[in-house]
Here is the input.
Amino acid sequence: MKITFSGYTHIVVALMLLLYSLYSRSLVGLSIALALILVFYYEYHVFFQTKNYIRNIIVERSVDKKICGELDKVKMILRIKNQGDKPIPRLIVLDTLPKFTSTRKKPVFTIALPPRCEAVAEYFFRVEAPGTHGFGELYMSITDPLGYFFEQYSYTANAYTVALPRTARTRVSVKSLQKIIGAYIAGKSLSGLYDLAGYREYQPGDDPRKILWKEYAKTGKLVVRLDYGESRAKTLLLVDIRNYLWYIGRSPNTLAHAQLRLARGILEYLAKTGSHIDMAVCCDVSPKLRIGVEKDVLEAIYDMSSLIKPGEGCQSPLSVYAEQAQYLGIDPMRYDLVVLVTNPLTLLLEGPDPLDKLLRVYAGKLFLIFPDYDYGSLIGRDEYKALLSRIAARIAGPGLGLEIPEIGVRINVERHR
Amino acid sequence: MNDLLIFITMLTVISIGIITEKYTGATEITPAIILGSVFAGIYLGLNPVYIALIAALIPGYKYVLLMTNKPYRASGGLKILWGSLSRYSAYIMLAIGLSLVLAGKRLEYIGAWESEMLYILIVFTALTATLDPRLGLFTWIGDKLKRDLSSIENGLIKLAYVLGLMLLLTTIWPSYNSAGLPGLLPYIASLVLRHKGQRVLSNIALALSMVLTIFFLP
Here is the structure.
């Protein structure tokens, strides 16, 4: 049991008034002083009784959107039930928000709970990062009606929402990737020209003979035909997220945000090109692999997001992506292209060894993609240029290259109003 | 400086504190101002009635703030608060009765037999409040004796009321002064309300009767 400042003031003032009224022989003062002391006693009595009823209170938590977009507003619903036969005169419920969620006002609710009644408390929170946002602990303070005494209890009621990253604007092309997919992969036709399987948009490097000129005349879009038996690019997308990336820059434009938006953009882009895509995401110790994610891109994005916990990241070195393929018995050479979404800072901090290992395992297939971020201001412009040169030189021979696509990974946010 | 002026200044500052507390949720502001005001009031030798009124603001403003809290009202808090108000009023009556007993000497200055009557009346009415089953006195005694004392309790409450009314009527007629008159109407209202089963309102009316009677005491 704890006493609040109001309770302390009440009893001090009452006692002072009692003495002063006796000293000044004031009947009104004495009456009010005694009344205040009795009210204080009553509050204590009520609090002492009700604090034993806390076990009768249960809280159920739910959200109106289990899946939402990054920066969406989600409604949290708390159902607070009094299952006992005694009333709870005053209950203060304080919800705790996980990292990367925010509310306009602190989620604190003062309610009363008559016997066998339920109170519903609702508030909106904004999801400021992609990933799984789990809500659990909340605090309940049971007090007397005037709030002079209180006892705090913690309570666990679980609910979660998965926020999908925003799509990076891919209108500005990922030039190198387009070239690789178009020239090196889609060009590997194994079948004849006349077994039509489908269409897709033209990519630079595609065989011009496959362009459907009639379609171009009708719609103005360059479309190429896909033939049966034509090999589809087998791509492995590696999404690397480190815990410190969440603290570089300001939410919702931290480096982790940018990297995840880029990953989504690349995934959507690869799916659009008709590639076969496997995806590996590392968020704790080992990467989780998803096979054939091109069939349902949205589900793949959901899968990726559900694995990510905002504020947390991969605890293993980058080379874990190479080891994983070995452990799972996957032949790294089955892939035509291995895209690693990472950033120069991670490579700088990890040193050259993990990258070298990746380059050895995915020999001639590894392609690095970094989000367009202001790295220069973080490590110094000259340092950054030198770092990029070193990475480019290292990957030039055994890898396919690196790219910092001019994709809009930053978003402007209106603060809560 | 004039006592009333100091009192009004203090009230103004406290009001600003209450408004600030309402909109910022900083619960320490108003109690701190009240505590400071009481200290200052005693230091300046302010009339104890003013200090008492300022002191009474602590539970008063808390109560009003809670009553105006929408989620609290929506979750059924008003009924609970209403019940508390009944208790508070009963306690105020009890306090007045007790203070009269404690400050019995004060009555020597009144001297007249009507004043003795008033004294008895007030103590008796305080007793009525104490007998209120909501205060739990009789329930507690009943529990200890393992007897149902509700019929005795009800009988005593009725008796207290009738005696109180008789005393009040005696006080105002054929009296030299009409000290009992302001308290009479709320007292009768309290009686009627209790008869109708409105115990909460009855207790509030009774408290008002007590306060007015004390206030107009010669």
